[in-house]
Amino acid sequence: MNAEVLTPVLDWLDLAGVAIFALTGALVAAREKQTFVTLAFFALLTGVGGGTVRDLLIGAPVFWIEDGLVAVVCLAIALLAWFTPTRWWDGRLLDVADGLGLTAYAVLGTAKALQYGVPPVPAAVMGVVTGTVGGIIRDVIAGRPSILMRPELYVTAAALSATLTVAGEFVPLTRSAVWIIAAASGFGLRLAAIQWKLSLPAYERY
User: Fold this and answer.
1) Rounded distance, CA 44 to CA 70, Å?
2) Which residues contact 157 (CB under 8 A, 6 or more apart)?
3) Got the DSSP string for 170-186?
4) Could you tell me which of 181, 144, 135, 147 has the C-alpha nearest to residue 162?
5) DSSP 3-state of 152
6) How far apart are CA 15 and CA 58, in angstroms?
7) What is the model's pLDDT at position 9?
8) How far apart are CA 108 and CA 128, in angstroms?
9) What is the pLDDT of residue 97?
């Protein structure tokens, strides 16, 4: 399918998600006192990892190969991390930014999958993949506990945004409005999880 699936709203969601995830990747390498090459690698890997897996699965051109600006953004973010102390990024600010990138990417991934003809449930899964896989790959390579193992609501926030994006196909709202509502809802849930340490019940049956 050679449809033009991105709109200005999705373009901005895409670049926002790439930049924020690239920063989290670069900071992982910076905290390990790695070289700039490693910072750039982690920035690119984290920024484009989820979207790459999504595009390969839905049969779309890999987005950052088609759009050269994406790699430039990742490298610029790596430079930003290289020339700033990591303490600048400690605390909740990065968690909040990461939550925004997570839900923006979940909306983007779901919307793109839908427009490539993917059925609703797999499309929502593609949204979650888009929002989380880059961070999972980052953590595995860095030898850190995966974001999947976080007790707080994280993947759930991406799932909420993805589900609302799918549901929006069946209500009389413009797609732009649906995407904004979906991203804001998931982001709100992620903020609540950060503020009040919300988590799902853990498995306790032995």
Assistant:
1) 9
2) 99, 102, 103, 106, 186, 187, 189, 190, 193
3) GSSS-HHHHHHHHHHHH
4) 181
5) strand
6) 20
7) 66
8) 10
9) 84
Can you tell me the distance from the alpha carbon of 77 to that of 186, in angstroms, rounded to the nearest whole number? Answer: 25
Instruction: For tokens 């049956």, name the residue.
Output: 205
Predicted pLDDT of residue 7: 66
Consecutive 10-residue runs of the chain (206 residues): their mean pLDDT? 53 82 94 96 96 96 92 96 92 86 92 95 97 94 86 92 97 92 96 93 84
Single-letter amino acid code for the residue at 4 = E
pTM of the model: 0.91
DSSP string, 105-140: HHHHHHHHHHHTT--HHHHHHHHHHHHHHHHHHHHH
CA 138 – CA 149 distance, rounded (Å): 14
Query: Which tokens go with 205?
Result: 């049956």
